[in-house]
Amino acid sequence: MVGQSPLGPGEGSAAVLLQPFVHQVGGHTSMLTYDEHTVCKPLVLQELSFYESLPLAMRQFTPQYKGIVSVHLKKDSLGNLTLIAGPSLAPDSAGGDPAVALWHKCKWSHTQVTKTFKDSCPGKMLLRTDLQYHTDSLLEDANGRQVERKSYNPWGLHCHQQHLNRMYSKHNENKLHQFLLLENVVSKCSYPCILDLKMGTRQHGDDASEEKKARHIKKCEQSTSASLGVRICGMQVYQADTGHFLCKDKYYGRKLSPEGFRQTLRQFLCTGNQLRMDLLEPIVLRLKALLAVIRKQSTYRFYSSSLLIIYDGQEHKESADHHLPFPKTHGANPSRVDVRMIDFAHTTFKGSKSNPNPTPHDGPDHGYIFGLENLIKILQSLSEGK
Fold first, then answer.
1. DSSP string spanning 122-154?
2. Could you give the percent of the chain with pLDDT greater than 70?
3. What confidence tens digit (pLDDT) does each residue in 148-188 have?
4. Domain that holds residue 75
């Protein structure tokens, strides 16, 4: 468990400057990078209750829970809003991931970020739904040497800026905020290709107001959530031919028909140079394993949770040359192909310490199961060329 209080003014070197997580493709809560293998997000008691009571069988399909850290909002000397977590080992300022260097180099201030999104989305603070995003200049490391240019999904920055604005408008700089520390499930990928799927036929939690309930029901009815039990909430696919990520956001996903959903799944496997059909079987096997686990989770309802499908856009040589699956690590889960459930702020189950519904639901989550079954069928049809 990480310490609960940030350090005082004289001990800032041991604090961690939280950076926007550059591979966040969906959701609305800001995900932040704590270290290379750890991300963090604002603590919600219902989600904490889920992680603390996590059934053993589900642990292979969820990020590892690493504890809680306290975070506070600060303004730097330039007036930029930053989030500081601590105590911790000092971050490696002499090198590290170029992604972290990107955020340092950009020095996003409130006005800069707002202007950026207004320019890209005139009239509203939404991202374009078909976006190839890249930096305009090569980054430099601490020694002034140019490092490899990568492209990044701007969705994380969008969520981060909204979160900073909310925190700054509601709280003073001295207030401590509790954040969950979770495994960075794409840390082993050089170019993470990520599909974020909103699962289930119902998205509102038991504690939703009538207005929020009606809003979520309408979203489901107008998207593939109702017909398939799953809709696309975000996506990034590394395009090896251009060196950029092709990104889709949740607004794109809401508009898709069942056939459009199927074609987007196919696009998720297209890395520019080739269609990664070799990944279909291991992904389907992983989804089937998850389905078997979900069917056994009585009283659980995973409302508004997401499912991530992940693979590395940097192909292994044997896979690129011979179109073979990646080497297996354990069971049916090849290395660099992963399936993880995330976002449990509205998950409920019998015995939950924060369950707003005194009467537990019966049996497994049939809406989630319906979505998984349809997802498996569509992926199998793609592998059969239908």
1. TTSS---SSEEE--SS--B-TTS-B-------T
2. 73
3. 444 677 888 888 888 888 888 888 777 899 999 999 999 99
4. 16-88+152-314+334-384
DSSP run (H or E) holding 178: strand 177-183
Q: Measured between alpha carbons, how far is 346 from 303 in angstroms, rounded to an integer?
A: 6
Residue with tokens 């189950």: 349
Q: Which residue has the higher pLDDT, 353 or 293?
A: 293
- Does residue 99 form part of some domain? no
Cα separation, 256 vs 175, in Å, equals: 42
Kindly provide the b/e burial profile for residues 7-22, where b requires at least 16 CB atoms within 10 angstroms of the residue's own CB.
beeeeeeebbbbbbbb
Residue type at position 279: L
CA distance 92 to 164: 24
Q: Please check whether residue 369 lies inside any domain of the structure.
A: yes
Count CB-CB contacts under 10 A for residue 118. 12
Residue 101 lies in a domain: no
Structure tokens at 333: 């889960």
CATH number at residue 232: 3.30.470.160
Tell me the one-letter amino acid at 87: P
Claim: this prediction has a pTM higher than 0.85: no
Question: Range with the lowest mean pLDDT among 90-94, 150-154, 375-379?
Answer: 90-94
Q: Which residue has the tokens 């809680």?
A: 68
Write 51-54 long-range contacts (CB < 8 A, 24+).
Answer: 51/180, 51/344, 53/349, 53/351, 53/352
Could you give the number of structural domains in the chain?
Answer: 1
Q: How confident is the model at residue 78 (pLDDT cuts 50, 70, 90)?
A: confident
Stronger pLDDT, 360 or 372, i.e. the higher one: 372
Query: Over 70: is that where the pLDDT of 111 sits?
Result: no
> Is residue 97 assigned to a domain?
no
Q: In the structure encoding, which two tokens stand for residue 20, read together?
A: 């926007």
Q: Which helix (H) or strand (E) holds 248?
A: strand 244-248
- The first and second tokens of residue 374, run together, are 């349809």
**What order of strands is seen across the sheet that includes strand 244-248?**
131-133, 244-248, 230-239, 192-199, 306-312, 337-342
